[in-house]
Amino acid sequence: MSVQYYVQAYFKWLFGVFFGAIILIVVNWTLTDNMEGIVLAIILFALVGLLYPFLQLYMEKRKSQKDG
User: Fold this and answer.
1) pLDDT at 34 over 60
2) Membrane-spanning residues where (predicted)?
3) Can you give the pLDDT at residue 37?
């Protein structure tokens, strides 16, 4: 895998985490009128997102094995 692949995957992950965090904050703010627990949700979202490039690579390998 090239460095460019990991950079692109990281930016996709960062984009998803950023907008996911904004959505979580807005939903939490509108439903409960407080900000408790949002930091934990953002941390968990980011931890799952760290595995994204490896999961994407695995899915691409499986797809290429099915096709080939």
Assistant:
1) no
2) 12-31, 37-55
3) 66
